[in-house]
Amino acid sequence: MKYGHFDDSKKEYVITSPKTPLPWINYLGCESFFSLISNTGGGYSFYKDAKLLRLTRYRYNNVPYDNNGRYFYIKDNGVTWNPGWQPTQTELDSYACRHGLGYTIFESSKNDLAASVTAFVPIGDNCEINKLTLKNNASTEKNIDIFSYIEFCLWNAVDDSSNFQRNLNTGEMEIEPGVIYHKTEYRERRNHYAVYAVNAPVAGFDTDRDTFLGAYRSPSDPEVVEKGAATNKIASGWSPCGSFQLKASLKPGEEVTYVFVLGYIENDKNDKWEALNVVNKKKAHEMLDRYKTTEQADAAFKALCDYWDNLLGKYTLETEDDKLCRMVNIWNQYQCMVTFNMSRSASYYESGMGRGMGFRDSSQDLLGFVHLIPDKARERIIDIASTQFEDGSAYHQYQPLTKTGNMDIGSGFNDDPLWLIAGTSAYIRETGDFSILDEMVPFDNKTELAKPLMEHLRRSFNFFDNAKGPHKLTLIGRADWNDCLNLNCFSDTPGESFQTTGPSEGPVAESVFIAGMYVKYGNEYADLCEHIGLNDEAGEVRAKLA
Amino acid sequence: MKYGHFDDSKKEYVITSPKTPLPWINYLGCESFFSLISNTGGGYSFYKDAKLLRLTRYRYNNVPYDNNGRYFYIKDNGVTWNPGWQPTQTELDSYACRHGLGYTIFESSKNDLAASVTAFVPIGDNCEINKLTLKNNASTEKNIDIFSYIEFCLWNAVDDSSNFQRNLNTGEMEIEPGVIYHKTEYRERRNHYAVYAVNAPVAGFDTDRDTFLGAYRSPSDPEVVEKGAATNKIASGWSPCGSFQLKASLKPGEEVTYVFVLGYIENDKNDKWEALNVVNKKKAHEMLDRYKTTEQADAAFKALCDYWDNLLGKYTLETEDDKLCRMVNIWNQYQCMVTFNMSRSASYYESGMGRGMGFRDSSQDLLGFVHLIPDKARERIIDIASTQFEDGSAYHQYQPLTKTGNMDIGSGFNDDPLWLIAGTSAYIRETGDFSILDEMVPFDNKTELAKPLMEHLRRSFNFFDNAKGPHKLTLIGRADWNDCLNLNCFSDTPGESFQTTGPSEGPVAESVFIAGMYVKYGNEYADLCEHIGLNDEAGEVRAKLA
């Protein structure tokens, strides 16, 4: 069974059936605003941190697969369908999903009506844009109702999916013509809100999920869509959503385009309000003004494409092997950049609720993108090193929003310190920028404990002076590179974490993998010492490794 | 709109439409095995602890409402329906849901086929029984396919809904004719498994959710039901489920009854296996032998009804006001018992993931059931007091499974200590059992710190010697009785808990409510002192309160 193919000329992967065995997803966003988007329009958006600042609600491991996304219901002559097939699952006459570099395009048709949705996060802005175009290919006029739909997450994805006693009571909205503001907790503990808008006069809106869907219904058959009339209800508590109803009359051959924006707006603490309980919308209006017209949206899309062309233009392999070129020149570099952008903090398997950025992961990922974005690689090294402890060990993960170590996971993964040497060494070999070693970097995120980065590397290496086991090999701690070698798989304590060093094996278990790293990156550390004239130290290091 | 009515003669609430505005639920289980069950058959089961030992998977705040439960698909002449309406939502010819004391009965019909499901947790056993009866009321023979369906939770409800990298790879099953064993993690870190069985020859079974439902489908239209043929697939990883296919041929007027059992089995650590990687099924077989026949199931149901008749017979109010009698004699006492059984640890708003049993809640709940089950009230007081700290403060919540304080929530709710006096005092006034005050009770769950319960009460009262504010009123700490008076609603720290004492108000904020408790329960404590001859101490206490 074939579900799609590569289109190398456009640097796209084209999926030709919505019914892939599992959702096949793309990642939108290159800076601070990110979205996951599947080949049926599923997924969610977040600002910097998939756990703490999630804009839209997604349901992992749900049935049907891949519940919730940015959906458009097209109601044409009594038939309701979606350009991405889900959630109505109405059979389409044609369907294509083009996962490109930082964007995804749907091209579908039903009963001589063609729909195209271009979804992307523009460079330099904190929003996802959905450009929807409908074209009447029939020989008679069509009168169409369009309903958009997203469901808001109440920001903290963990609370959102567990603390119902609280979160069913907190939802708050504001409305302007064609603009929905989701401002839950803005008054109490947040200086940010979400804005959802369309650049055309609307026939109505909905903001209360249960009203829009109807009792015991789902996004597969919303009651409002069935009835064909938005309710203009403003949600208070329960589950806030965003939906616009638009009406289009299209003559044969005529087309219409709408630009939808889902944005994240942060206000200065002292500038939160424009009146009592009325959020300051200045920045939201400015954002929406940037995407008021199709031309503006198209220009932003072109800027995104130029950004990727430029980035991937830095390194090009030419061979006669198309598949090798495709892998090296497009998808491997793209994947490295996505990994830089969100580490492994959110995917369709990683729920975005727990881990944040990995110390180990982010360090080793550097090797894949240092040639593309050396400046950002430098910044990343310093962020990572800032979560190291004074003894050379490190928080295993840190929250991208706060850049502080994640206490829930804690430390004790003994490969971590050596990955810092690996990443820094790779950065210097690519850039020649030895000045990074003099950069003052905090320990444990405390600026008063800052030391030059070189001192961090020194402590990474020296950490193992006191972390060797009975065979003089490096201790594994909680895990080495392979998390599946988890030492605490066996436990008698209900609810005990899988990643805690057990009292029995913990103090003696050694890792051959870390020992190999110790030698490899110990030597790279010695090389760095020699390069900056610390020949004695280099000698001592190599003596330990001998 | 009227959805139901009380049936006092049967001590039931009868719901006459499945489409209640929200799910209306009942609680099954009186000892260690518990289930939530809605008026459409939704809900889930757990053993002792809704977070750590959840047997079946439930999806909170999902759409359609109330996803997952114990479902029976009845396929009769091409039409598939459920006795509880969900999940197919096929319109029924008749429907009633009877929520009784510890049981729920569905009585439905469609196309002259009548179905009845009696769901209950028997006294003295760790299982939920579903007795399904089908009767052919048509004038011709019917050939019916029945498919049952549950989805297993991988025990820890938090991991189950967040750690997909791990839990999509761990599911393990074993099969016997008519019996499905869910044994995920049994080898590594558990000595318990779930068993799901039916007391009749089966036409087939399914254990892999995605196979049973089909891709992009949901319990509303399982592919296996549509095709009419179980696949006999044994799940390995992904999402284990349990489904049996049964075939029944019913002549006009004929009926058939099946007994389904979902049970929890715990084995001795040294007796886990009957062969390599084959779980020891002895206890499971013994359990299933207890519900092999309809008569056995009926006897267990009668024992449950007798249990409740006896319990509620201890106190009976007779007045001419039916509603007052109904409230006092049936539903208020029932509710108090349910609260004793599971505190507020799991409901359709409380996700069962976080809180466990509340120190405050369980103390005050005592007042409602001490006359029904004084022995268990005594045990509960000692469990609660065991989570108190030496300074008189207490863990705000504790896990029912381990009975140890919940570190995630921690302490600092200053009303807690006084509720211990309230509960103990109420227990002694009801029972006259002063011996409880001499019971040795740990502090902080550490037996080496055990002191007589009277010393716990003393420290509860004396806690406030150092916890008064600028007006000499008691400090509120993190909250008083009203959690909504939360002091930390306003926060600048991303992801900060709602229940942490802020640095600004924390040290000075006083609670008039706790001050009232201090006087009321301080005097009750002084009364206790006098009763056991501590007149000097009683005088000192009353002096502090003057």
Note the main attributes of this structure.
homodimer, 546 residues, alpha+beta, ten-stranded antiparallel beta sheet, 25 strands
Q: Taking strands numbered 1, 2, ... along the chain, how are they ordered across the largest sheet of chain A?
A: 1-2-9-10-11-12-19-16-15-14
Report the β-strand fraction of chain A as a percent range.
25-35%
User: Strand tally of chain A, please?
Assistant: 25
Structural shape of chain A: globular
Helical proportion of chain A, percent range: 25-40%
Low-confidence stretches of chain A: none
The chain-level structural class of chain A is: alpha+beta
Major sheet of chain A: 10 strands, antiparallel
Work out the helix count of chain A: 13
